[in-house]
Amino acid sequence: MGVFTVTIQAGDPTGERFVPVSVLVDTGASYTTLPSALLRDLGVQPIGKQQFMLASGQTMTKDIGETRVRLDGKEGTTVVVFGDS
């Protein structure tokens, strides 16, 4: 397992508009966090809240949404966490 930075393209829910964004990837994580401001600018709306446990054992509750992402020429829909910048 490891942590590294990668540039992905985050898209609007319809996949019509994408913007590049550098994200921190933790191979042990089970969710993707993107900045809230970026998601809202793309028109991604929260569909609910979910509680997450961090590696430290601390829990947090965050908005989640669904949107399109591209990486290495592959595109798909994924659930994203509305995170800090």
Q: What descriptors fit this protein?
A:
single chain, 85 residues, mainly beta, 6-stranded mixed sheet, 6 strands
Write a brief caption for the model.
Strands 1, 2, 3, 4, 5 and 6 form a 6-stranded mixed beta sheet that branches. The relative contact order is 0.28.
Describe this structure in words.
With 85 residues, the chain is mainly beta. 7% of the residues lie in helices and 60% in strands. The chain has 1 helix and 6 strands; from the N terminus they run E-E-E-H-E-E-E. It has one helix spanning 36-41, and strands spanning 3-11, 18-26, 32-35, 48-53, 59-71, 74-83. Strands 1, 2, 3, 4, 5 and 6 form a 6-stranded mixed sheet that branches. Strand 5 and strand 6 form a beta hairpin. The longest helix is centred in the middle third of the chain and has 6 residues, at 36-41. It starts with a strand and ends with a strand. The model has no long low-confidence stretch (mean pLDDT 89).
